[in-house]
Amino acid sequence: MCGIFGYIGKKEAKNILIEGLESLEYRGYDSAGVAIVEDDEIKITKRAGKVEELKKVLLKNENSGTLGIAHTRWATHGLPTENNAHPHFDSKKNVVLVHNGIIENYLELKNEFKIKTASQVDTEIIAELLSIMPEDDNLEKLKHVSKLLKGSYAIAIIFKNEPDAIYLAKKESPLMIGQDNDDIFISSDANAFKKYCKSFYILNNGDFAKITYNNIEFFNKNKKIYKKLNKFINTFSFQSNNKYIMLDEIFQTPDALRETANYFSNFKDIKSYFNNIDKIYLIGCGTAYHSCLYGKHYLNFLKVPIFTEIASEFRYGDYKITKNTLCIFISQSGETADTLACVKKCKCKTLAITNVPNSSITFACKKTILMKAGWERAVASTKAYSCQLLIFYLLRCLLLDKQPHISSLINAVKKYLATLNMETLSKNLLNYEKVMFIGRQGDFVTAKESALKLKEISYLNCIACPSGELKHGTLAIVDNKTLVFMIATQKKLMSKNLLTKDEIEARGGKCLIASCFEGYDIKLPHTQSNFLPIISILPFQLLACNVSILKGYNPDKPRNLSKSVTVE
Length: 568
Ligand code: G6P
Prior knowledge:
The protein has about 575 residues and is an alpha/beta fold. The chain contains 18 helices and 25 strands. It has an eight-stranded antiparallel β-sheet with strand order 3-2-4-1-10-9-11-15, covered by helices on one side. A seven-stranded antiparallel β-sheet has the order 5-6-7-8-12-13-14. Helix 10 (about 335-345) links the parallel strand 18 and strand 19 (about 350-355). Helix 1 packs antiparallel against helix 2 and helix 8 packs antiparallel against helix 15 (about 440-460). 6-O-phosphono-alpha-D-glucopyranose binds near residues 285, 286, 336, 339 and 561.
């Protein structure tokens, strides 16, 4: 949520900053801005809207500065206007900064220090405080201010009296630094500077950094510290064939599954971590929570109770966690604030399943299983979801001492994707006002994930409901403007499913069935039941993407959402 990028080196900063912001747009794209130092003067350019808008003006500007900070915003406080866009100056223009996170006590601080701000954002209070702090040394000012702030922050700052330095501070929100000889890069996500650097530093909570030309120094609140360099773990890169990243990512699923399955051999010793456990909690948000729901199905042979929990709920609930409880945290990004807060609360066995090495959740958990889905950039998760389900299938096989059938799975996914065409259905869907996804058992999880995909990128009013629950209320909204997709992969439940279809159609609704059995509307492949969760979502991922495009939206950048939700 919000992306920070910074550069200090021998090249012109503006192109590098824009390129960095483009890579970070998955974290937010309400507005964007840069501050570049040219001839010791700090020049800010900001625009409401996507990075594209900023790029149009910035690249026309004459600015040969070689030090700058940049930001792409996902609004939390105040509208996504140019005035609220980062970077923010203090009123005396002594300090300029970009911030990712939320300053929870900014109103209290405004009152306490009698500060008036020009924008509606919480960030401005940091600039004002830095500007009025009594210390002479900028690092000491920053340490002082950080003690006053409650909440989360990654901050990059330029002080007017020290225009050849960028200062950083971090608490909860991610911040990394990469170096390639004379070029130093700062980013919320190391992937954004990966093409320039072989390794990078990660700031931990409470760390500060001072970066000048060719030099990086780290500090904590007491002293200078030394940090180790982290190597990039080879995530494999994919070719882009489509105009939209989301379409690319759906079609990368077979490769992502293969890489993830191959890499899983590194984590086989996780088996013993399941010894002597009294229960399991599977915890995540959004799509990752849906993976938890399927995770329970994959692990249901275990003799311990398994609970699935939405992280934003779990973090405030009371649970009977013992030292023998295993909490499994699913997070594509490894940075989701609610999920991370749950890890911190769990004083028990903790296992992260993430797609991003060195992410906060991987650091916070005692054990990690890393997926290799490759960088997922479209906001709506597709290939990462498939890989999360695959991990649960692999765990199931590992714990049962069974050989997983990876080639059959990958071939089935590949073959299915090659023939899958959802275009006509996507166009027909536009004739309906309401869309519903229903299913029983595991198929209900696919229904939930399908509804989430469709609503997040096409803004359609759609819900998911367990098929059998329809008659207990939801059927009331079914009429001739309602399209229902039923996912039906279990033979033994087919007669019940057909009854449900009749109930929908008797109310004027249209019901289309996706099934692996012959004679239904959307064909799913006939394959082993453990593969079906991974395969049955594919038509609906594609449907959501098509509908979004048909409605004239960009599926990669849906309104009001962000891929990496690093604030509560
Ligand atoms: C956001 C994204 C979803 C994602 C969820 C959890 O809501 O828009 O696509 O599923 O966060 O993200 P995580 O990185 O923890 O899997």
